[in-house]
Design a protein that fits this description.
- By secondary structure, the protein is of the alpha/beta class.
- The chain contains 26 helices and 33 strands.
- 34% of the residues lie in helices and 23% in strands.
- The protein has a 7-stranded parallel sheet, sandwiched between helices. Strands 18-28-27-19-26-25 form a 6-stranded parallel sheet, sandwiched between helices.
- A hairpin with a 2-residue loop joins strand 30 and strand 31.
- Helix 2 packs antiparallel against helix 15, helix 4 crosses helix 5 and helix 10 packs parallel to helix 13.
- It is globular and about 80 Å long.
Length: 846
Amino acid sequence: MPAVGGFANVIVDIAANSVRDRLFTYAIPDTLAQEVSLGVPVLVPFGNSRTIAGYVISLSNDLPEAFDTQNIELKEIMTVLDEQAFFDAQYIEFLKWVADYYLSSLMDVITAALPACLVPRLKQTAHLVDQLVNENAWTEEQRAIIHILRQSKTLELSVITLKQRWCKTAKQKEIHFYKVFNSLLARKVIERRSAITAGTKIKTKDVITWTNKETANEQAKRVITVLEENLGQLSKTQLAKQAKVTLKTISKLLEEGILSLSKEDQIRDPLQYLQKTQMNAQKAKPLPDLTTDQINVFSVLKGALLAQLKAQSPASDNTPWLLHGVTGSGKTEIYLRLIDEALINNRTALLMVPEIALTPQLAERLVQRFGEQVAVWHSGLSDGERFDTWRRLQNGQLKILLGARSAILVNMPKLGLIIIDEEHDASYKQTSPSPRYNAKTLALEKAKLNGALVLCGSATPDVVTYYLAQKQNKILAMPKRIFDQGFPKTIIADMRQEFASGNRSIFSKALAEALFSCLEKKEQAILLLNRRGYASHVFCRACGYVSSCKNCSVPMVYHKLSTTSSGSKEIDLLICHHCGYQSQLSQTCPSCQQPFLRNYGLGTQRVEIELQKLLPQAKIIRLDSDIAQKKGAHEEVFQKFATGQADVLIGTQMIAKGLDNANVTLVGILAADAAFNLSDYRCTERGFQLLTQVAGRAGRGHLPGKVIVQTFNPELPALKSSLSHDYQSFYDAELPTRQSYIYPPFSQLIRVVIAGEDLDKTVHASEKLTETLSNYLADAADTSEMMVLGPAPCLLERLHGKYRQHLIVKNTTGDHGRNLIASFFKNKRSIDDVQIAVDMDAIDLL
């Protein structure tokens, strides 16, 4: 805390790129000297008449030299928005590192890291001063703003809403809005107002307790008995209902001092449904016996963890440990025991998973072992749940965090262990918006700052992770399943032969028979198709027209959507899976007007419908992005399947990992070829990982498993490796290919995407940028060390209404090359209305 009259460096919450990375110095007034501390949100004056929110990034007792020498008057902080500090010095350093590494503004990183519900926000509104103003005195663009505000009942709208409506009405870009808006401000036709909107607050509840005062009243005795049965605490309404008395009776007992009323924090806990599990966790239960492989692996990792916690400094090679265990080998038990060791040593632990869908089963196992110390963090939380979880992590009530990608940005005091499960999954990398971070890379930096251990686990490790771990001799293998079961039997169904024999069904003969058998034995099956919807696209057989999105250069996907809860009525919709644009399916071709529209391809919706026809008695459930949009859908689907309420689970890649159900004996993969047919250097790896993972869901208990793979190309080497669970053969074939084309791990890929609404401008800007960048790198590095490829149209050339070009930089010089790129693109986010996005360590090249 600075002395009275100290100074604070503040980063302001403003959209303008020119100030997104700058810190502004403000004086701390005497009245706020005890409230202003590192990491608190504040309200500050900005410019001539604006008031904006920001965060205190650093403090000083000395006046900055620039102000001292130039005799500039320093503005003061106006107020503190929340007394709770959201940063400490170490956390700020971490966020600054993220911004620097991924060429993002610090404010973008803070916005991504801090839940919006934590802090009161400043809302800027525009108010029409005179609703009778003569519109004829203004330009068409100015009249549009006046007209939009006049339509509002209060003559007032948020600046963001006004901007969106004006851009749509005037058919102009955002950059022009502020010029027009500011001209009206200057003429005092409109005025800008600021209001602080309250963030999420602590939720409280009234609690009645017995004061131990004796009473002879029979009603009062009954009330006290009910309280004792409920551990002494109930709300007023609950108590009256259970004791079968009126609220007036409860009020009288409060007045007489027999009962007391107090307020308690009401925790909004997303794991509340596991209350019984938490109660069982209090009872001592013996830990499961470990296999020989598990004993050996745990011994090494425990030693490494304790050594790391004792040293409280990063490992010299900064390479995470890799636990390479086949599906069903017992990796999760290793995770749980390492977490326990971290807790014993007074440190906290972060366990990361790539999909929200994986949290329910893992959450239950964590709660069974560690009770109320466990929390979850993912995009499915409500604002209240997010607020309470963050607060309880900071005050030390929660010691273990289970979360998806964004959990790496959460501030966890005393962090000692980071576990990244299914580390191969591409979901750990955020491609858009900024910051375009990889949670695995952030984990290493976070471990550096906290003196923590990082463990990656997977049955199908990322090629880069495996290569680096192998170089440092930090791979631990568990090649056997926990009950010594063999891998499931694999059958390849050649769909070319099926078609030649007259089978027009989406199910091969082998898969159909296996599904019948599975149902008869009361066992369960999983069907994987990594494509949601009913059909991949709709086309006209007369003229060849394909229904495409008006905003993106991709075909629209055909969906059947229910309009009633019973599903008795359906509508046919075409939906873009990139921008969300929807249109109703026409009965005739929009191009030639002929009634020859047909759907083509396969989606999970169609599989569900066709399977119900094949097995009318079967209970079928589906899990894909359409189903998962509903809050709690993952938990509901997995709970139904785990408890035997469904015979068959159909889904996309989100069902390929983490499912541990002993009654699953059959896995069907409907279109295995699709996983290997993407224009991406990682498509072979991704296909191998997906098929290996989903095949591993079968035969995890004592019952033998079977996997049936439908393919039009059974000769694919990676397909064969995945079905035999042979990672080494896949890796040995993949690595030389990566080396010959200088792909990771032999280079760092940096992707630059140039996007604009005008095609010619976008192409011209991309060519100019590539030439300038190439010349810059040629002067600073050898062309064999920094290779620039492109520019070229992106595979998805048009997305969200913008044309896209991209170029790829292959950097083989490590930090030196990355720093060159960072220096070149610093503060370069747009050129002539064309946006530039730099993706460091790119894995998505679409």
